[in-house]
Amino acid sequence: MPETSNRFLFAREHRDPAAGGATGRWDGSGTLSGMGVSRFLQLGLLLAVWLAGAAVRAQPVAVADTLVVTAGSEDLAGVIAAVGRRMREADLRAAPYAYTTVTTRTDAYGPDDSTGVVIVTRTVARQIRDQDQGGRTVTLATRTRRFEDGNLVWESTRDEPGSARWREPARPLLESLPFAEGAADKYRYEVRERHLVGNTLIYRIAFTPRNRFDPLPSGEVWVDYAGWVMRRLVAHMDRGTTPTALLDEVPLYRLVQEQRDGLWLPVDVHLVMDLKPAPLVTLPRRMDLRVQVTDVEVRGSVDARHRRLTADERDPEEFWLTPEAAADSLAAFWARVDAPWTAGGDSLTMDGPPVAVEDSLVTWADGQLAALAHAGRPWLLSAVPLAPRFNRALGLVPRVRVTAGRAGDPAPSARLWAGWGLAEGRGVGKVEVGREAVGHRRWGWQLAAWSQARPFVAADRPLRDISALLYGADPRSFVREDAAHAVVLCRLGTGLRIEVRAGVFRHRSLDQATDWNLGGQDPSPGALMAAEAVEGHTLGLGLQGIGRGWRWRTEAGSWSYTGRPDRWRLQAEVGWKGQDAGGNAWRLSAGGVRWTRTAPVQDQVWLGGWGSLGGWPAGRLRGDQGLTAQVETDLAADLLRAVRFPVLAGMRLQPVIALEGGWTDGGGPLGSVAAGFQRRLGLPVLGRFQNLRMLAAWPVGPGAQEAGMRVLVGMAE
What we know:
- Helices cover 13% and strands 46% of the residues.
- The protein has 7 helices and 33 strands.
- It has helices at 38-58, 76-93, 304-310, 323-342, 359-375, 464-471, 639-642; strands at 12-14, 23-26, 66-68, 97-108, 117-129, 135-148, 151-158, 165-167, 187-197, 200-209, 218-224, 229-237, 247-260, 263-275, 286-298, 379-391, 395-406, 413-421, 426-435, 443-455, 478-493, 496-510, 534-546, 550-561, 567-579, 585-595, 605-607, 621-623, 625-634, 654-664, 668-680, 692-700, 710-715.
């Protein structure tokens, strides 16, 4: 029977003597502490089981075959998060390695694979991954075949190898899967099975989203406890859980990880997506993508600590199997697990087994990739249009983004966005040059300069301009800011970094240029207020941290204004987001700012702004010091569907409640409450756009200055 407890990972072991020690099954419940004592527990458990086996042999009648082991408590979400963290750490320590990929893409346009048009494209490539030099790839062969009603009607083959090129880092297809950073707490887990296979303990764990409105997959994962690594993952997203207009469902996302020369690598990734019909666009009914990895070769030594974490150091005598026998048991076990996806032979979609690449061709490809690295990384330039901005100072602002960087290396890089305010007739933009502190890099830096119209109330969510254009939900007060700064940052550890910043600025007042919006609503709140014309410099020191679901930030900085004494600003922010046992999502945040002297209007503490569902008018509360606090919850209950509300019952509208409070020395305390609904518009595969939401709410309480519903479009935290 499956065990439904999502706490208590294990406590006692049952071993069937008839199995001959080759396979077994874990039964019962218990507890497991976090990663800090995992190695101690593992060795202690192995010793205890070995002693228990010796006792059974000496006194087979008097001693039971069950052993109880207890440890500190840790829920399954914590275990999954720890496994994902160890996998990411091992990936960062990985030595350079080369591998061959066989990618098969199948686009089916008919009602099934045997009717209509099916196009199958297979590409074989040789690739190298190097943390220091980035990725490089060379295409070895490509074959495209077209089937009509199951019959091959056209085929194109290119066996000549292509030229080697730099490969930009690929973003994961489903970055919100349980092992992704920060995603484990979004799921419920259930231990389905425990298997002792050879010398390895395997868990089969089912996962489902805690919140039914989250566009997240459901599925099962097989975790290898000996290596603390995910070995198999099978997931799906049913019809109705994908909040996009074109994607119908994701019937399969399957990932297979195997160990190659001391490294755990994804060797088989399979993704299937069903699409909806779209007007004026010809889209396939189903897209099937499979990537298989072969010919893995590690180019250097693997980190010694990584070997200690993954090597099997147990004594194979007596209780434990020999490494050869254990490997045979594991191979047979994974063959049974993989049987549902490998049974039935090759189909048109799978397009046959992986292609065997000749050794001479692999050697030639490795030489081409090595020569490419020796030649150095070229600089690449790209330009793409951005969504236009809209505010009352500049009107509609079309924009373009230009990016320059070294191929195969995300940093250093240069980024520029530029636009033109059509109403005001002036340009705005920002240029950045820097190197991020990501991966194995501990230090980072940035140089930036910009000229733009800044509202007095800082935009706390991206895409606020959509709400401004549709509903006039932006402040009427703007200041033109010309500024530049230099930043040096250092990662002190996981989730902790220190930042030093220095810069100069100039502020000039801007008159309101537009007073219209597409919704025809009053663009208020707030009367037009002139900004002070000031110049000065900034010097600041900040510390940022992130933990399980929470973030905090503290900063102390010096500001100097023309004709005014110097002053200091102290700022602190803390926030937490997570889900409770019922799947309701919570976002809590609080912050405080204090100036030692009077600051210009645009730099005072402001409460309110477009991001407030309840909403104070911009500038209603302001001063030289203040505190704010917000609580927002997204309820997991589908109220409209439960009561079968006409028309809206099938739209998956999620209830939202927001409470806000604040205090400044200039306006005193004030609070607001809002209640409404939101519709999620993004998917995990969309990166930062996965949090795109549309919110509609009715403000009540002291903060409700305008009658009627407020509609906001933007990114959630």
